[in-house]
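User: For a benchmark we're assembling, each entry needs the component sequences followed by a predicted structure for the full assembly. Here are entry 17's components. Please fill in the structure.
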Amino acid sequence: MRIGIVGLGLIGGSLGLDLRGLGHTVLGMSRKQETCRIAEKIGAVDQARPEPDILATCDLVFLCTPIGLLIPVAEAIQLHLNPAAILTDVGSVKASLVAPLSHIWPRFIGGHPMAGTAESGILAAQNNLFVNRPYVLTPTPETDPEIMPVVTEVVKSLQSILYVTSPAEHDQAVAWISHLPVMVSAALLGSPTNHESQPEILELAQALASSGFRDTSRVGGGNPELGRMMAEYNSIALLTSLKHYQQELTGLIELLETQNWSGLEAYLAQQAQARPAFVGEA
Amino acid sequence: MRIGIVGLGLIGGSLGLDLRGLGHTVLGMSRKQETCRIAEKIGAVDQARPEPDILATCDLVFLCTPIGLLIPVAEAIQLHLNPAAILTDVGSVKASLVAPLSHIWPRFIGGHPMAGTAESGILAAQNNLFVNRPYVLTPTPETDPEIMPVVTEVVKSLQSILYVTSPAEHDQAVAWISHLPVMVSAALLGSPTNHESQPEILELAQALASSGFRDTSRVGGGNPELGRMMAEYNSIALLTSLKHYQQELTGLIELLETQNWSGLEAYLAQQAQARPAFVGEA
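Assistant: Structure for entry 17:
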């Protein structure tokens, strides 16, 4: 197949490495000439250019830009695509993207490969990034039935674990396990920082903080722009999660205020039991 | 010095190993004869017995039992101590313990070595557990001035980093960085578990959960009995922290509801800036 990749960062570059390894011809597009040059040099693409006409012969095109650029980039390339081409993306939210992207290009299907590293950019691209990692596809009732088999085969060839669900269900699931943790964790950092009125207690807290605080605060101290984007593009599901979370917290506060220690222990025991199903130890 | 250790688990056993290595005579007490035998065998004590009379000749006694046993154990041993003996504990909360323990034994000073491993019990005891770890001492205005220099020297000989503060300040600091994270993290597990009404979304969330959810949920999925104890013995400081945390969360929900994305990004940027001071990267 001739496969296009728009946006040559960690995800786009890693896709290119694997897809070329599988025998496909990979054509890349990046705004920066220098990125195109590096992508060619490391073998992530056969050829890359900043101009969208490079995509003209592609059967399948992956949009791999940051979430905020997906719609404008789709607008910019659509006149250059083969009418039979299938378009897909790798954005971490789906409902708010699938609708406009399907409108721009009806042969579109939303996708979300859940893989990554702490690094970003084309130089972080690596082979086998998607092996044994989830890859969610989100067809809708309007998705052309020809599309799923093509994209499914490519996803499976990456050795990803395929999940198929609706955009809305995807978004609620990732709100629970990816976007809610960022907010919960950020608020943990904000609490002593914004509310501790005694500087000596804040300093002592900072000095005494150890692995528990380090782990619980990690995702809340991450890239603010990414956090904002996930909230902006998944605000409905995230708000639902946040309000349920607030109810849990109110319940915990009530257990403490009523000194219901056996109730608190039972609550904590329920969570200790619930965790293995989420962290692959069930 | 002749040093007594009551409660021969990870902390008591590790203290014994180090203190014997420093040339002190260490006398241990544990309810279980078998634990006494193991402690002797691994060299954590010179001698150990279940009976409190073994403490009669000690100059300094460490109470290393679980928090819930500290007061009854102090009651049980006090008749057997040398009137000049100094008593200290290793409990992770202070105000609710320092007052009753000082009442039982006026020559008491609260302590909290912040070290540990995932293991527990005498077989987990190890040398140098306290090296470069915080060790908080919490004297009060009533603490006999003779006591601090003696305990300070022992703490420093363990190569711990000594902090001296009041019981209440200690408790508020550990509420922020140790006890609040447990509650925040448990509520993260409880939210999808108790509120997701669609089982297929819950299952998808469990399947897609990755390192972010793993880290943020770790301390909330820990030992429920320990979580209950820290809440029970530090309920006032923990409630203060939880209520401030709830305000942070309400603020985040408002940012999302008003679609104040630049405000959200600024909030997340503030937390990314705050975190290094807590995790030793400042």
